[in-house]
Design brief:
The chain is mainly alpha-helical. About 65% of the residues lie in helices and about 5% in strands. The longest helix is centred in the last third of the chain and has 24 residues.
């Protein structure tokens, strides 16, 4: 994924639905204790989107595997959280999961709640963007939608296959564009912390745990994450916000967010910023 030819092949594979990229390998520099875990992650990403997508994961991970200031603990956390975020929850993924479970002889039924913007955001941009704009115009983007995924009946399995077939268009969706931008910004913050405040790198890597699930849980965690990065982490790494213990502050905000306390997140961020500026 580091040449124009590779990028073109990556795009072409999604247009045609044929991914002829060679199966990616665990990158050099990954410690022996992590190689099996990274190999499993690559296999999961191939199942999720294909070999080219897994190669993107390898490319990203290689950036940190080569660094002397990244130990096995930090690299393992980056690898795990990046796998989870690159396999983000959308209706396509849930359909894929139910089909895989069915093939394993364990057909199941489940119900998931999404916001309308998530459903339209999973469609190819050509179709999804006009629908998203229409929803924004009438104020329906936050409208909750409950979807049933049923692998226990013929019609249910047919619908699952139709939903899973959208995988080939996933990388052209608005949701993918936002997820890709999020992962790149998260990795950038880890990279900057290693240079500016190495002691905080592990905690900043762990902020990925704030963003998970779907529906209101996902949107709330994403909002909290951006607030933490924009108001605390970035200013601290830029030297504009003097914090003696950035790692401790980040850990506190992550805990509040994961407890589902958005108002407390905002209050804590305001308190921390005020205290840091008063003490400067």
């Amino acid at each position: 994924m580091n040449s124009i030819a590779d990028s073109f092949r990556f795009l072409l594979s999604d247009i045609t639905g044929v991914d002829d990229c060679a199966l990616p390998m665990v990158p050099d520099g990954v410690p022996e204790t992590l190689r099996s875990e990274v190999a499993d992650a690559i296999a999961a990403l191939i199942a999720y989107q294909g070999p080219s997508y897994a190669e993107l994961y390898v490319h990203r991970l290689r950036r940190f595997a080569r660094r002397r200031d990244v130990d096995a603990v930090l690299l393992g956390l980056i690898a795990r959280e990046m796998t989870r975020r690159m396999c983000y929850d959308d209706p396509i993924r849930i359909a894929q999961h139910h089909l895989a479970t069915m093939h394993g002889g364990e057909a199941a039924t489940s119900r998931h709640r999404f916001r309308l913007e998530e459903l339209f955001g999973a469609l190819p941009g050509k179709f999804g963007r006009p629908l998203l704009m229409g929803c924004e115009h009438v104020g329906w983007t936050h409208l909750p939608i409950s979807m049933r995924f049923n692998a226990c009946s013929g019609p249910g399995r047919l619908r699952l296959r139709l939903e899973a077939s959208l995988r080939r268009w996933r990388l052209f969706s608005a949701r993918y564009a936002s997820e890709r931008a999020w992962v790149e910004r998260w990795l950038h913050m880890i990279d900057r912390s290693l240079t500016k405040q190495p002691a905080a790198a592990l905690a900043i890597t762990g902020t990925a745990a704030m963003v998970q699930g779907s529906g209101d849980v996902y949107r709330r965690g994403l909002t909290d994450w951006h607030a933490l990065i924009d108001s605390i982490v970035k200013p601290a790494l830029d030297g504009a916000l003097p914090l003696a213990d950035l790692s401790g502050v980040v850990t506190e905000i992550v805990a509040l967010s994961r407890a589902g306390a958005p108002s407390q997140v905002a209050t804590a961020i305001a308190r921390i910023r005020e205290g840091a500026n008063l003490g400067a």
